[in-house]
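YM 10:42: CoA-transferase sequence, as discussed on the call
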Amino acid sequence: MTGPATRAETCVVACAEAWRGDGAVLASFAGLIPQLAARLAQLTFAPDLLVSDGEATLLRDGQVEGWLPYRSVFAMVAAGTRHMMMGASQLDRLGNQNISCVGPWERPKSQLLGVRGAPGNTVNHPVSYWIPRHSPRVFVERVDMVSGVGHDRGAHEIRLVVTDLAVLDFATPDRSMRLRSVHPGVTVDEVVAATGFALSIPDDVPETREPSADERRLIREHLDPRGLREREIA
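YM 10:58: structure's back
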């Protein structure tokens, strides 16, 4: 293991922090970096975290730990014992997410995934988001269609939004989006320019923590020796 942390590795650690303190909940994810993050959290500061292969198997350090049929996942969603890190094609300042379409839903310009499980996720259990390309096309004043609900529509908890530039949260009086930290080498002005609405910005914005030597070793040698993480934000 040589060399400083890359931006992708900083993003892995930032995503992992979303599950800190969760205990024995099911960590679900969309994307390689959140998957690596959940596994890293389980191996380090969150040993009780449940991590699945996305189908019906629970894994610990790459080994089968148990069976989790899909019907049990629905039970965990309803009970609030899951924390999902989803993606978003659009996200607004109050956390409303769109993964359904671009343009008016009656006559969209582009058809996307559809709402999928986003409504149930956002009203029943904590949700975070991973955005590999922070841009005004994603961070919009108003989403074209609400798939996952935001804090103005009864979201349970939207904990973190991690992007290739920064970490954001909703620790404001009106639960609107706040700049929590910027990744090393990124300025506050760059994040503001890449966001299509007015962020809440504290007087002092810290840098996102970089992975420790042990975390870098786990990421590089154990979790992702092929370095596929670097392609997700390239």
